[in-house]
Design goal:
With 274 residues, the protein is α/β, with parallel strands linked by helices. It has an eight-stranded mixed beta barrel with strand order 1-2-4-5-6-7-8-9, surrounded by four helices. A hairpin with a 4-residue loop joins β1 and β2. α5 packs parallel to α6. The N terminus is likely disordered. The structure holds ligand C2E and calcium ion (3 copies). One calcium ion binds next to loops. This is Diguanylate cyclase (GGDEF)-like protein/PAS domain S-box-containing protein.
């Protein structure tokens, strides 16, 4: 039994080593990714449901790893946060997104995801205003998407930063709405411009009774608070019909377009821009 236990432990330990080694390699490679131009921004359109026109595009970072190919942000953003690299990467994303959007026709907005760690850095407001100034993008065209972790414990410092960002004239969206514990409470602490219902509530529409009830309630809250309501992860016409019936303002998902390279956006805007 003892030998078994040791054997089990050894196998487990070896597994951990492999995992940690892979993560360590990822850290080293990520450190060089920015300088080596391996990061790229893709964009995914958000469609205004009353006009069926693109209202904005969300910037989604991509990493072309020299050996591994495309690495999903779901895999490397956590590593970037752990190492602090999210600060330079986040700044690059902001600058590049504003730069790209300033070249789009019409008043098409651009949405940028912010990590909670970017709020700890101290320079976020300056980084955002510099990105706006350098690109010449009108502040009202920039939307910053934050998740509930930014609001955790009614974090006073972060609320203050959000207010300063708002004073720059940018829009603040709550992303992945409904996945945390206190989504509703946070709507009371800060006047968000937009809520984006997490795609987990969309995937089982139209059959999912619970999801439908929640999605309906969020649409109602948005209406009464004057907050733009968006859904993400719309993949089928049936899902779109369901969110349309609930009166959502905007939708995003593979049904309209996958995230595409920046070079493809002008074409999409010509076909379905504002
Ligand atoms: P998110 O902000 O919730 O972004 C939406 C994710 O859903 C994207 O995954 C997008 O490609 C995917 N998606 C869009 N439409 C559909 C659909 O119809 N069906 C399905 N199944 N998926 C859809 P992606 O690009 O892999 O990004 C994953 C997450 O990584 C993002 O989730 C965001 O949290 C994070 N992320 C991406 N770019 C950045 C960035 O520049 N900065 C930070 N801090 N986080 C980022
Ligand atoms: Ca997002
Ligand atoms: Ca989201
Ligand atoms: Ca999500």
């Amino acid at each position: 039994a003892k030998a078994d236990g040791r054997g089990t432990f050894r196998r487990y330990a070896a597994g951990m080593d492999v995992h940690m080694q892979a993560r360590q390699e990822l850290k080293v490679a990520l450190r060089n990714a920015l300088a080596r131009n391996e990061l790229d921004l893709f964009f995914q359109p958000l469609v205004d449901l009353s006009s069926s026109r693109v209202s904005s595009c969300e910037a989604l970072v991509r990493w072309r790893h020299p050996d591994k190919g495309m690495v999903s942000p779901a895999d490397f953003i956590p590593v970037a946060e752990e190492t602090g690299l999210i600060i330079p990467i986040g700044e690059w994303v902001l600058r590049t997104a504003c730069e790209q959007a300033s070249g789009w026709e019409g008043d098409i907005g651009v949405a940028v995801n912010l990590s909670p760690l970017q709020f700890k850095d101290g320079d976020l407001v300056k980084i955002v205003s510099d990105a706006l100034e350098a690109s010449g993008l009108a502040p009202s065209r920039l939307q910053l998407e934050i998740t509930e972790s930014v609001m955790l414990d009614e974090n006073e410092a972060n609320l203050h930063i959000l207010q300063e960002l708002r004073h720059l004239g940018v829009k603040i969206a709550m992303d992945d709405f409904g996945t945390g514990y206190s989504s509703l409470g946070y709507l009371r602490s800060f006047p968000f411009d937009k809520i984006k219902v997490d795609r987990g509530f969309i995937s089982d529409l139209p059959e999912g009774k619970e999801s439908l009830a929640i999605v309906r309630a969020v649409a109602g809250i948005g209406r009464s608070l004057g907050i733009t309501t968006t859904v993400e992860g719309v993949e089928t016409q049936e899902q779109l019909d369901a969110v349309n019936a609930e009166g959502f303002d905007e939708a995003q998902g593979y049904l309209f377009s996958r995230p595409v390279p920046a070079a493809d956006i002008p074409d999409i805007l010509r076909r379905m821009g504002s």
